[in-house]
Batch of 4 targets.
Target 1
Amino acid sequence: MTVKILSSAFDPWQETQQHQQSQLEAGKYGATASFVGTMRDFNQGDDVASMTLEHYPGMTESYLQKICDEAEQRWQLIDCLIVHRVGEMHPNDPIVLTVVWSAHRKEAFEACRYLMEELKTRAPFWKKEDMMEGHRWVDKNTPG
Amino acid sequence: MSITVKFFARLREQVGKAELTLDSAGDVLSIWNRATENMPMPDNTLCAINMEYSNTDAPVKDGDEVAFFPPVTGG
């Protein structure tokens, strides 16, 4: 299980491949499910030029680990990876990556969804959107 | 006796400080009241003690870190 908070842009496919090659044993996993959240250039009908993501160093990592632990207890998984951006980002930048490896697809699909939904409601991150006129804090996430 | 109090995101801007230290314990709500000079706590405020979510009536001990923040919006 790996949890990473990054303050600069990342390539989710490269992260996935790198993790898979360095951490997983070939031939053991039959299913890989991944989710990538990417920054849009609009929200609630307004153009958004850039966004800043704040987190609570220590608590954020600890909750991401906790969520992975819960998924590993609930489903039979081989490995989990969560990568999340913080700091200033721009449209089309990946914000989050969750990947789950398991023997069969059911566990991988369900656990990947679980990681994302739990992350969205429990991991301390806050989005601030930079608009043409000033900034605004995002009050709540869109329903999944 | 020393309690570290942290504010994040919109709450940090509303309270006007990111972090401060208090020299006496109590429960989470009393920590908020002293740290913000009795500012009303916004309804949806989340609290944590030592990086674990807590309620406003949870006891705070010497050396604890108490954090206040709005609903989370990551992912």
Target 2
Amino acid sequence: MEILDILLQPNFWAAAIRIATPLIFGVLGALLCERAGVLNLGIEGIFVAGAMSGWMAVWLGADLWTGVLAAAAVGALFGLLHALLTVVLGLSQHVSGLGITLFATSLGYFTYRTALPDVSSPPRITPFGPIAPDLAGLPVIGPLLFQQTPLTLLAVLLVAGVAWVLYRTPLGLALRAVGDNPAAVEAQGLSVQGLRIGAVAAGSALMALGGAFLTMSAFDAFFFGMVNGRGWICIALVVFSSWQPAKALLGALLFGAFDAFQIRLQGEVGQFIPGQVFLMLPYLLSILALVLVARKADYPRALLQPWFKGQRQ
Amino acid sequence: MPAGPDDDVVLALEGITKRFGALVANDHLDLVLRRGEILALLGENGAGKTTLMNILFGHYLPEAGTVRIADAGGVLSPLPHGSPGAALRAGIGMVHQHFTLAENLSGIDNIVLGTEPMLLPYRQRSAARLRLAQIIAESGLDVDLDVRVAALTVGERQRVEILKALYRNVRVLILDEPTAVLTPQEANGLFEILRRLAAAGLAVIFISHKLGEVLAVSHRIAVLRVGRKAGELVTAEADRRTIAELMVGKAVPAVHRSAPVVGHPVLEFERVTLRQRSARQSLQGASFAVRSGEIVGLAGVSGNGQQALAALTCGLALPDSGEIRLFGERLRRADPRGLVATGVARIPEDRNSDGVVGTMSVAENIAIEDVRGAAYNRFGLLDGRAMAARAREAITGYDIRCPGPDAETRLLSGGNMQKLILARVLEREPRVIIANQPTRGLDVGAQADVHRRIIDARDRGAAVLLISEDLDELFALADRLLVIHAGDITDAGPTGELDRGTVGMLMAGHPHAANEAATA
Amino acid sequence: MRVQIEPRATTPLSLRAMVVLVTAFAALVLIAIPVALAGASPFEAYGLMLKGSVGSLFAVSETLTRAAPLILTGLAAAVAFRARLWNIGAEGQLYAGAIGAVLVGSGLVHLPPPLMIAAVMLAGFAAGALLMLVPALLKQRFGADEVVVTLLLNFVVILLVQMLVEGPLKDPLALGWPQSVPLIEAADLPKLLPRMRVHLGLLVGLAAALILWVVLKKTALGFEIRATGENRAAARFAGIPVDMTMLKVALISGGLAGLAGVGEVAGVKGYLSADLSPGFGYAGIVVAMLAGLSPIGTVFAAIFVAAVFVGADSMSRATGISNYLADLIVALSLLLVLISGFFLRFRLRFRAAAGNTPGRRA
């Protein structure tokens, strides 16, 4: 059967992991923000900003890891702006997030165009290479691990790291508490605003790494429209992951597998069905995933609710 | 315990003043607390008790005044304002009226939250468990620490709240209206624990608006009225009359209730079941009837199915099984507008979230149940003038203090909002009234006003179902009492033949014990 | 020193006016930074933008042409947001409306012009309305957040458009470019001025704004929409059918965005292609927020945003500065307006520390 053939190819799984990586970063980032009680719809724009600034740092001469750091820093800055509007000023998280997406996207595009006004095809950098090119030929572990770039490894390590922080440290406990009942956190002498601002900044830095992966690992140049809704897909996948890092990894991998599968299927039956139908599938799948889990989803209770110190009970 | 020498003082508040806009919630308040003492802070709703304690614990910043707290050596030093962290470090703990617990975490998680250094890359559980086991043994506050708070009962959650404070080695413990969610028996259990803790040296401030329990448990009473200290007494030397007058400042307007003139059953529940998230909150096969001309009270600790019952009577839900009849006809649809048209007046439990749309005007909120009716619609458009006229009538008739019919409703005080709701629902001379916690958060004057209107409506022949957590209110108003526990409803009979102990037993779910007590 | 935040009891008109002015000024100042960094003089750039957007009859016509779809997508966002229905799918609903217009207007039926125009508009409205019904129903039946669903559907619809214009709707006479068959002449929206591009769609937008204003302020439906958005629980308690009201809002909102698509096809281009809308749907959200969700304000906000885009295009051609500046201006305006909303609702008090610290109410 064709389906089985596709699934058994090692290249399929390598592609699945590659497609999943930016989503892992994005879902982790959104998960951190939402666990603290803040919806960050700036994710799509932060992906763009991360993609652009990471790439540009390298193009201007920095080494790859400095570029990654630059992308994370840019993401954290936009996160701080979102935190200022939603946590400190208590403004609508929906509108602020959308505003950040528009702002970050337009700023990214404008900066890129202004720095490179006359190019006909996007200039390229030398992206991250495979972790161990010599070992890439090994069966199973070759495509799954050694063919992947260091950023993918970073993504998986971050899943473990975020899980550890959330469940095994006092900081993580406070984060989980603040997303459920900020009053509980304040009554224990902790700062609700501080926790939320920190979570949003850190989460946004992670989101930016998702964008950086696109320009520094998956591809080697920055294209307008390259993010193409990945940020929104992450928002859907966070619900699907029940705000748990392990499930976030699983969800991203499943999605990556589905997307890789859809691409290969297109190669097989592309004559009969227009390509766009296949391209629609990832978005429709995300909607389906959301619909399936939304009813039972254990939303952080304080999500979308602003908190002012000294809130009357 | 008689007032001791000054070096036994653990807490001294001086000149605390707090304003919210034009309202002076605390007016130059002084308070002194000694080691091992239980001080009751008494006053009616709106007197400023919770505000004062919130200032003490650092939730609010005062306009003026100082707080001094004794350190371990007994020396008083100033406490910085506005920081719960500082209050905790100084040894002050607070059990809030609305629990400050994260429901997605376990009891021990909630207790330990904020006690470990934030940047530690691991957690230290075993030491905490040992300490807590000791505290539980000493205080008698037994609860399973590993269960998610969401799965705990209200009484258990309160125990976690208190353990939170004890774990922090507090020297002063503040409890804000702790018995609001307890049966009379559970309240007595709490008082026992407080006495034990006080005997061991803990200083306790106990906020309440209930005279009876204050007399039962405190050593000293401080009475607040409209933001000022009206008086301070030693409990052993105090009498109810004096305290009540200090609380209210004048003779309490007594509510007189003549014997009811009862007619036919108007609202009937027959084996009605409505499932909710938890079994306790579900309604299980409830049967009762309310007849015209009588007030039937529903007593019970919150969270025992009242919300399900209220949803059914207000037209927001249909029963899973059983039958609800209104004027003899079965209710087939969840249709609030239909109920209103048939003559049902509904007073919601939470006026802010369910009663009014805060950003809409007073006139709009008065008209809201009727917005599609002929009274407000002309040629397909809303008749603003009719709405304004109706609103002006209501404002005068019900003494609603507000800038005018166009004022935003969220600016009204709680009492005036409640009057708005009454104006909305009582104007149509309803035949059935569902009153759910109608005087919650209101001062005595506003309470008396609400009570009078309910009794007037009943005297005109309306059938009234009064759902309330305030036993005093129920005994004052209801002709007959029902008690709800874990979704089961028991008919306790005419109020005149009941005493609080029996009702308390029924509220706790011990009908047999109640019968024994009644016949003893 | 401590800063305390208090809610305001009233928002006088003078305060609103001052806030608008300060916001506009802040925007101009902030935008000067990227302009200067791009190597041009901000004054020169602003001057060119002004000239390009309102400096001639042609410029005004271009601005109004650009404003027409923005009025409609702005209204779509405004009515939805009033009910707290977060419709971020106006872009997709616009394209759905365009598809509807092409399906009906490219030869399916032949009617005299006024009826033909009405038919095409009806088709476009219906298409947009039905599309928005999907996320609204998914939210009601399954609790699926409409923000994500509407956003994702945008991508789906645009892919659908690509599919249609490369396939069933493809214009064989278009020299290989992927665009749809054109509308028949009877379906074209007449121009309002000779030799200018501004078309009837503008009047449709203005009429829609007026109608929406009347509905929201003066009808029972409008009352129900406002109550549902401002306090859903209280509206429900009072007997307002909140679920049905949300569905009505979804239909109206989607339909308005669909009309924007009809306008672009029938009034500007004459056919459908995948690049019909340079983000009118998303810009509509900004327009609605700038207008404070008021229908009449939407008209002015739409004209403002249109002027920014048209002016930036013109300035870009003259100075070589990327016309993404327009998106930047619009995004920044949104954030500034959001912040200004805070100052309209709250006041800040500065006091000295300790002792005499002012109180704070949630």
Target 3
Amino acid sequence: MKSAEGRGRTLDEAVDAALIELGESRRNVDVRVISEGPEETVVEVSVIDHTVPSLGVGAPTNGKADVARSLVEGLLKHMGVRAQVTVRTGTDPITLDISGRDLGALIGWRGETLRALQSVTNVMLGRHLAEGERVIVDVERYRQRREHTVREIALRAARQVKMTGDAITLDAMQAFERRAIHLALQDDPDVGSSSIGEEPDRRVVVGPRKPAGS
Amino acid sequence: MPGRAAAERVRKAIALVNAVADGAGDEDITPTEIAEAIRDCLELREIEQGSNVRKYLGEALDAVSDGMPADFVAMTLYAALGALGESR
């Protein structure tokens, strides 16, 4: 599998650097963040092998991914949606990518329909999955793009917090987005994150990390 | 607007369940909180007796009581949200 390492000040810049080296577009690649810091972000960008229809190299080989893919294909067929379902390679948990034309309706308002599809998929796959194991369903990389976007927001907010010393409250976000922010900032020695408020208006606050013992 | 308040409450319950399923990292949501959010939906007069919305909400509440997986509860709540949209 063709891959390249990209470096940049932001996640987007790092991905773009790798894409230029590979001569590929964002739609055809998987992005793995190697490190994210206030000064530099390093990513590994791998070209998706479209010649492998389902279980690609590095995908879970226990057959669960294949079962999940077939199941989602069946669901989409019943819904009258024409789309291709592939298993994202080298990911844990199992991630299914749905691609096709005009799939906006499948994402729905703030990803609601996509999320519902994921819930149904996990319920239907229940007996094939170990306890706590889940399958992630993504449409046209919507979820991945959202995660990248909120990570960018987190890093930008962290830079501002370091400059001003004031905490910043971000917009209300879904749990997986808040998780992406907490993960993005967990290794930052100066800036931390916490969530406040109640669902569905729960927000992340990015602020200076308190010294230990205070 | 009829149905809007109900949709908001159902979405709140869904968000709570999804937060449990996704494990945002700083959540401490108990089944009691989820059950309360579903009961808040059921208390709304605009959700008619005998409607599919009420039926799905009741099933979601039972699922929480029975300790069913978060995805199952979420799926049932999405069904309630869908039925709410159809009834409008």
Target 4
Amino acid sequence: MMTANAFDGLADWTDGESLLPPPPLVSVRGVSHRFGPGCDRCVELTGEEAGTNRCHACGSVVAVHDASFEVGSREVLGVVGESGSGKTTLLRCLHLDLVPDAGSMVVGQQENMFQATAAHRELRRSTVVMVHQNALAAGLYPRLAAESNVAERLLGGGARAFTGIHARATELLSELGLQPERHTDALMTFSGGMQQRVQLARALVDPPQLLLLDEPTTGLDPSVQADLLDVVQRVTETLGSATVIVSHDLAVVRILASRIVVLHHGRIVEQGVSEQILEDPQHPYTQLLVSSRLT
Amino acid sequence: MSTPNQPQTVAGLAAAHGKPEAYAYLDEDTKRNVRRAILKALAIPGWQVPFASREMPVARGWGSGGLQVTLSVVGPTDIVKVIDQGDDFSVNAVGMRNLISASAQCEATTSTPAATIIQSRHRIPDTDLRADQLLVLQVPHPEPLRRVVPDDVAALACHAERDYTPAWLDLYDAQARLGGPRTGADHPVLVAGARLMSPSPIPRHDVMRLNQRAHPILLGAGRRARLTALPPYTSVEPLAFDDRPLEPERPDGPCHRCGSSTSYRVPTDGAGVAALVWCCSDVDACGARVGAAE
């Protein structure tokens, strides 16, 4: 038991609110990915000045070029941008679905994840977890029970005691607001909001170092959205992992993210603290994005 | 349409072409190919080795794989036994036994202790085999991940990475929703702690008897053209959670004929009684017990 003393308050203050920024858990450097044959002039013919991300010399699409950012532990980074700005390509690179043409990603103690010798399938289970916009289209098992989908990451990690896995999976699902009698129902019988909760429980079951959220609330009705945002916020706070959230909904990003990266034509045009970006946008594209927000 | 001039048997056909009849039905090249695959399979226990599966005088899926394995290793001094679901006298077993013994000029038997090669479908004989005996199992689907991964390429990747999470996940799902494994027969096994293997559709009672056998087991899948082998004294563990071990089938009563309560029994009708009764599935072992009692 702790005894009350004069340093209690101080300890809390230094733990929670350090004046120094937290050390980055995830450090992404110069990630570039191009679809197409590519040529020497791809980079100069695309981007901000060119106003496109398609190279007219060779027809390649420079989806992401030289994207660098850092995410600290317990920090939420928002990635915003219009359709076709490279959000999804960047996210697929971070999820190790795509190996980028250039760049590196260092997560915790692990060296460049893009060149990891361990199977990417294994890393996707242990280190990087994505919450997809559509749970059934990617990654999850629609025919299996909700709790099996949650248990998959523990089973992949080598857990072989049924009782322990079962207890953990059902506890998390109940915590995220799913009734126990539905835990064994097939995932495809769930509503969109419930599927997102299952995905969040899947992330929580064994906290990953990097959590990726791909449009977690898109396609849900406003009341479910508000409810789910609450859950996402709680999850990102308890996990202790670095979180990257991709969304075109600025309201969602504003609530969840502490820092924002703005992508346009495959380039990062602005990044900073979210209040600063949303209240005082510097780049013309960001100004357009912020002014066109429905409030 | 056959005319009187055309040869009616394999021996006659071979004679018409001026060649001696092939020993044990298959030509020497085929037998060599199958033997090489068997050696490779024995060297990598539990690994599915492809082989050039030939057309056989039984339909694919009716034991053509087991038949090719038996015909490739059989010799004139062998004594062959063929069983189907434990029964020596089912049509398919009798047909294959006749083919093997006739083409290899070897003896056939129904007695498990007397046989040197035992080809079986869906059962392992109740009598434990000796080190000098060989068990050949007929396999319809050699891929244990067939039901849990989308295609063969994905299954191959799982085997290459020794990542059997899909199979564990399937087992977990069945345990959570049904309270036990979904597999009635053909429960996947881990061979030598590393490779997942389909043991052919033998009941769970037999799956649990695969561990550390004194005799080699060869599994042939003719339709899928794959051979798998378990060398003697291989560790074979059924896929099961630490706190949910695999349970064998529980018959409702002892054998109606021999009274055994430890053998694998199946519900049987006929047998001179009106109601459904439980009888040993291994007819030879049951008969031996009845004979000993009299």
